[in-house]
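User: Need the bound-state model for calcium ion:
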Amino acid sequence: MKDASNLDHLSPDEWDEFHSPRPETTDFDRVVESALSRRNFMKGVLAFGSGAAVMGSGMLTSTSARAQAAATFAFDALPIATDHTVHVPEGYEWKVLARWGDPLFSDAEPFDAATGITVASSGKVFGENTDGMEAFVVDGRQLIAVNHEFPNIDTNLPWKGDNAFTADDVTILQNIQGVTVMEIEETDDGWQIVVDSPYNRRIHHNTPMRMAGPAAGHDLLKTSADPDGTTALGTMNNCGSGKTPWGTYLTCEENFNGYFGASDPASVETPGLQRYGVQAEGRYGYELHQARYDVTQEPNEPHRFGWIVEIDPADPDSMPVKRTALGRFKHENAAAVVAPSGQVVVYLGDDERGEYLYKYVSNGTYTEGGSTEGLLDDGTLFAAKFEDDGTGRWLELTPEATGMEAAEILIYTRMAASAVGATTMDRPEWVATNPVAPQGYVALTNNRNRGIKPNAGGDPTPVNGPNPRAENNYGQIARWVPDNGDHAADGFTWDLYVMAGNPLVGQGPYAGSDNVDEGNLFNSPDGMMFDTTGTLWIQTDGNDSNDGPFTGMGNNQMLAGNPETGEIRRFLTGPQGSEVTGLTWSGDLRTMFAGIQHPDAPFPDGPDSLPRSSIVQIKRSDGAAVG
Ligand code: FEO
Ligand code: CA
Ligand code: CA
Ligand code: CA
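Assistant: Bound-state model below.
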């Protein structure tokens, strides 16, 4: 979710701290030292995994070694931008594929540049704040499933002002969030939505969903509308995405807490609601119009959100399924991979300061074309423990280890991970796994309030190995290699792929790792996805002021990273105010689709229109593959 703190300038105190000389010995030194000692190990693993020449690895590579590395990207680095449009390198072209308010069905009214969409059409159009997405080819047709994370009130309800939310306002907001499944087709004018395709579907805050897995039917999931605790209404704050090996979509419920309120403020004073940030005043007025969002009346309703939801894009009549075995937290995305044993492993991040990185390992095994029954319902959840010596372990969340019953571990997963002593992280955003080497990567976006805003477990978030900076404006990407190249293994070895920073204005660790230079400055890595060739695409959601500590970084952007050499090169810049998030490719890999979330006006329709979050399509001018 858009983090308001990202957009603030530093206070004078923070500015002083930022520029203060670095202490002689820091935790940063310690982690760099231990990382350096692992260089050869990482190189060995990469060579083993990819069979390609290896020049070094990430921040561990010396500048000279990197300079000798062959150029590995098919494009020239793009300069920063501070304007209101999208830029891609020479030899590439972009255009809009879908904007908030574009019709999915022909009976939707046209988008009004001044007022947006009507309540009657709000569930028939492409939703707001495009985020994680995945592409699917079904019966030769190209589908995209895509999230709509949260609303922008000034844009979506431009008439509202300071007035209270009306019932119609709430309905519009509920309809423009969630998920779109849509068919697209390539025309002489590029890819376009196939209006009225039988695959087109909006899934929003009132779509019925089945609760599955060990927590389904638990008392904590029962409400007056659903006394069995097995059928929830809606999915919300859908942030990142995932794709199962069997071709279904995973949508990830992140900041669900903001949709709830309490008519009696005392109702939110329970450990479970506090740990997940539910407050007495909701952000969007839902609780004023619909009793289920008032936790005084329905204390269990928030327990029905914060899950991974599986959607079958090939079957528009299918009911989405909330997979409780994958735990409940502020899910960022879901990176699914099949272990050598056939077990399905899903890596999961919880995006909040001081929360954790997780993985799920199925008990059953996947075989292509075989039954997938139970693969996301029956398994084990682990939280990551990173040691400063560069090793790590996945800590199993069991009743014995946590003192919690099995279903409670899934419903209050954050508490379970705290109970076993998992490593607190600087806001885990997307996780990505490398298709050509046994590696996982997690974007740790930033952490500007380490001691100021501790997690609800009570302790300030400590500095530790993968989170080495006390005042972390910039973020870093940590990566791990599972023992024996097996993602189902309990142990791993880790290092930092990159520490974002600013050598123009920062010193020591605030200058960033040595694969950061004037030509590729960025802050706050967030979206992350590998393409089929093993290039890591990094999207940012950070401070785009281009000022102070963020001088020389410009607007939010997308960069390509080489896992072997550590080289990082800017590929795309977004319009001012936007976050670049969500990435997928057409089946023939000749088109890349990227999400532009919450741009400022005039993107993309000009100064007389409300701004519209959009998916853009990017092609090479020569028609070759882009991933
Ligand atoms: Fe919705 Fe953590 O990004
Ligand atoms: Ca966002
Ligand atoms: Ca994100
Ligand atoms: Ca973010």
